[in-house]
């Protein structure tokens, strides 16, 4: 019965670990998406900055295309870009926190990632003592 409890615990540890890695991947994806939006804002700003401020300009607000002037649109695009950059900074902070939590979790449960036939840890399989705490092996996410 103790062996079954150990398997359940290892499965739970593996599930929590996979969940943590999934969260980190989602944050990476969102940061990448927002960085692409910042680049798009930079392209728009680069295209309209040299134009006459009174020139007609169109902007999407929700799903509606509205007519404005360059003088009205340029500051709004700059504010949007700055807001996105702030969100990226907060996501980077959250990412670092999650990565630290993941590292602590790996150390707590002695988790090693098994990639193919090699393990990422610096220990050699032949150098381990039999019966020593082995930790939990988790496949690649």
Walk me through this protein's architecture:
The chain is an alpha+beta fold and 141 residues long. The chain has one domain (2-50, 85-138). 61% of the residues lie in helices and 14% in strands. It is built from two helices and five strands. It has helices at 2-48, 70-108, and strands at residues 56-61, 64-69, 112-115, 118-119, 137-138. A three-stranded mixed sheet has the order 4-3-5, with no helix packed on it. Strand 1 and strand 2 (64-69) form a beta hairpin. Helix 1 packs antiparallel against helix 2 (70-108).
Structural class: alpha+beta
Taking pLDDT < 50 over at least 5 consecutive residues as the criterion, the unreliable ranges are 118-132
**Sequence of strands across the biggest β-sheet:** 4-3-5
Shape: rod-shaped
Count of distinct structural domains: 1
Quickly count the helices. Answer: 2
What oligomeric state do these chains adopt?
single chain
Mean pLDDT: 85
Organism: Carex littledalei
Keywords: Chaperone, Coiled coil
Family: Belongs to the prefoldin subunit beta family.
Biased composition (Basic and acidic residues): 117-131
């Amino acid at each position: 019965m103790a062996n079954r409890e150990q398997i359940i615990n290892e499965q739970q540890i593996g599930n929590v670990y996979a969940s943590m890695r999934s969260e980190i991947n989602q944050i990476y994806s969102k940061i990448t998406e927002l960085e692409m939006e910042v680049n798009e804002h930079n392209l728009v700003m680069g295209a309209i900055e040299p134009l006459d401020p009174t020139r007609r300009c169109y902007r999407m607000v929700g799903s509606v295309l509205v007519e404005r002037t360059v003088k009205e649109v340029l500051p709004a695009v700059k504010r949007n870009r700055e807001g996105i950059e702030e969100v990226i900074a907060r996501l980077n902070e959250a990412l670092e926190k999650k990565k630290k939590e993941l590292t602590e979790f790996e150390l707590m449960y002695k988790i090693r990632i098994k990639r193919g036939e090699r393990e990422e840890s610096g220990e050699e399989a032949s150098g381990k003592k039999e019966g020593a705490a082995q930790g939990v092996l988790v496949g690649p996410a």
